[in-house]
Amino acid sequence: MIQIYHNPRCGKSRNCLAFIEQTNQEYEIIPYLTETPNFDELKKLLEKLNLQPIELVRIKEKIWIENYKGKELTNEHIIQAMIDNPILIERPIVIKDGKAIIGRDLDRVASFLD
User: Fold this and answer.
1) Alpha helix ranges (H) inside the chain
2) How far apart are CA 68 and CA 65, in angstroms?
3) Catalytic residue numbers, as ranges
4) Pseudo-torsion of CA 37, 40, 44, 46, nearest 10°?
5) CB of 33 within 8 A of CB of 86?
6) Within 10 Å of residue 105's Cβ, how many Cβ atoms?
7) Mean pLDDT over residues 76-97, rounded?
8) Residues 6+ away with beta carbon under 8 Å from 4
9) What is the DSSP letter of 89?
């Protein structure tokens, strides 16, 4: 089954969800802003994405700039920052068959879901 970490206020996330809906495949929406992943879940998600924690952070978000930018942070600190402020998690994230991608590019999502 496909899973999508979805933010309904984000246009890219809405577009990705609409695309997934058109594939007629089973999917699950994970509203990560209200059902924030815990530390282990986020760490496993990063492994599926094959990304370092900082690569999943929306570094232009005001919260990041005001509270974290320019500080020396370990990967654990960065993961905790995303848990404490889930708006910092890049979106949408699409998961299928134990792998994941950031689904901002619908062509990439199409290839991933094939």
Assistant:
1) 11-22, 39-49, 62-67, 75-84, 106-113
2) 6
3) 10
4) 70
5) yes
6) 13
7) 98
8) 13, 16, 17, 20, 27, 28, 29, 30, 92, 93, 94, 95, 103
9) B
